[in-house]
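Schema walk-through. Below, the input block comes first and the output block second. Nothing else is stored per chain. Lengths vary across the set, and this one has 331 residues.
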Amino acid sequence: MANATASIASRELRPDPWASAFQAGDPPTSPAATVQLAETAVPPVTTMATPAARSPFLEPSSTTAGVPRTPFPVPPGPSDITYVDGADRPPSGRLVLIGRDGGEGPNFGLRESLDIGRIEGVVILADDRYVSPRHARIVARRGSYHLRDLDSTNGVFLRIPFLRGNADPSISRKPLDPEQELGGQELFLLGQQVLRFEIVKNAEEGLGVASENGTLLFGTPATPRFARISQRTVEGVIRDVFHVRKAETVIGRESGDIVFSDDPFVSRRHAVIRVLPTQGGSGRRFTLADLSSSNGTFLQIREEVQLRHGDHIRIGQQLLRFDLDTTSPGA
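--- output ---
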């Protein structure tokens, strides 16, 4: 079992997942994503390839970028901000699109409110059909930047560990606990795998010993079931289901309790789910930690989250990096 304190301090992506992971005979790359800033087009960026040019996300809608549509409803948000003597002004920064070769693609300066989408927003990912018309928003507030999902179809994923909720801006400069809290019905990404985590109900934990006409039935010894992990496919259905039965469940490509041997984007030992006692010891809680994988582990955000310098964001098939000017006050 991997050391529970496996270091994930280095959170920069290595070139490997986007360039050398696919060798001769591997699947073709997906279509290039054309990125636009407002109405101005910039050079195309090639996205990460997926088997048979398909994504592990839900099948995209048939709506294309060239078809007129009703403007997508945008949840209200604090985009109009008044700064008092610059005291609450966040540092300058940029959002960088990462290319398949691991290099930097187009980058977009941060502003008070920056929307990302396939049809609407400041950053337009026109050719990625897994991106919703208006997918996500980054907004400046109280000296920091915050990311929210705009009710998109496929969600917004952030590389773990990350800050939950609206924390004090000063916390964003402190080291994070590598153990990310994991709740029921949450989705997370490893390589091309889209996995749903579900906590089992009390009735499912153990069914007891079976008998027939007073005789106990022979069978493999029962083990506790704390949770299950289900694999979501592009058809929108569940394929394989794995149970969390012990204190540590390792997921990887070659070694672990759950192995995805055909996924070149999953590291040998990629991530671990741990079962821990709650405060007071009366219950259980679950955490997800990355085991220094090449591609990282991403968890879907369920509420607005505060961004930190160097955070990586998955939207559709696109990978973006959030960079702050570390020389600016408050960075």
